[in-house]
């Protein structure tokens, strides 16, 4: 049974940092591209960042480029999203996702989703 479990969300002030983690089980983690998506209230789910199976290639959407960094540790079956200089508009539920097309770092099409973790940034 595949499980993706996110952690690390919370309530922070604008300018603060958070690091999200997503631990995978039930899959051969290194065979999957991984991604982070987010969904704010009343908005569609948005692709935020992606990483190839090896970690060699990453993608960050323009609105987070230079502030967020995706990374992975295949030995720990975990993908991370380091979020710096957070803004109120970053407030959303953040989801990690696994894509069996392991090279899809810039267009992750999820085969599996996590349950999400709330990030709230106050001004």
List the total number of helices.
0
Secondary-structure-based class equals: mainly beta
- Give the C-alpha Rg: 13 Å
The percent of residues in helical segments reads under 10%
Enumerate the spans where pLDDT stays under 50 for 5 or more consecutive residues: none
**Separation of the first and last Cα atoms:** 40 Å
Beta-strand proportion = over 45%
Q: Whole-number average pLDDT? A: 96
Question: Can you offer a commentary on this structure?
Answer:
The protein has strands at residues 3-7, 10-13, 18-25, 33-39, 46-51, 58-60, 68-73, 78-83, 92-99, 112-113, 117-122. The chain has 123 residues and is mainly β. The strands form two sheets. Strands 2, 4, 5, 6, 9, 10 and 11 form a seven-stranded mixed sheet that branches. The protein starts with a strand and ends with a strand.
Question: Outline of this structure?
Answer:
Strands 2, 4, 5, 6, 9, 10 and 11 form a seven-stranded mixed beta sheet that branches. This protein has a four-stranded antiparallel beta sheet with strand order 1-3-8-7, with no helix packed on it.
What attributes characterize this protein structure?
mainly beta, 123 residues, seven-stranded mixed β-sheet
Secondary-structure map:
Layout: E1 3-7, E2 10-13, E3 18-25, E4 33-39, E5 46-51, E6 58-60, E7 68-73, E8 78-83, E9 92-99, E10 112-113, E11 117-122
Parallel strand pairs: 2-11
Antiparallel strand pairs: 1-3, 3-8, 4-5, 4-9, 5-6, 7-8, 9-10, 9-11
């Amino acid at each position: 049974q595949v499980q993706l479990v996110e952690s690390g969300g919370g309530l922070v002030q604008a300018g603060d940092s958070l690091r999200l983690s997503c631990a995978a089980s039930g899959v051969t983690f290194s065979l999957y591209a991984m991604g982070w998506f987010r969904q704010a209230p009343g908005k569609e789910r948005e692709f935020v960042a992606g990483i190839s199976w090896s970690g060699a290639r990453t993608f960050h959407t323009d609105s987070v480029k230079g502030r967020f960094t995706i990374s992975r540790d295949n030995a720990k079956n975990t993908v991370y999203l380091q979020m710096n200089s957070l803004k109120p508009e970053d407030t959303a539920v953040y989801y990690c996702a696994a894509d069996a097309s392991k090279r899809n770092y810039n267009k992750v099409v999820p085969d599996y989703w996590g349950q999400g973790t709330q990030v709230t940034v106050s001004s």
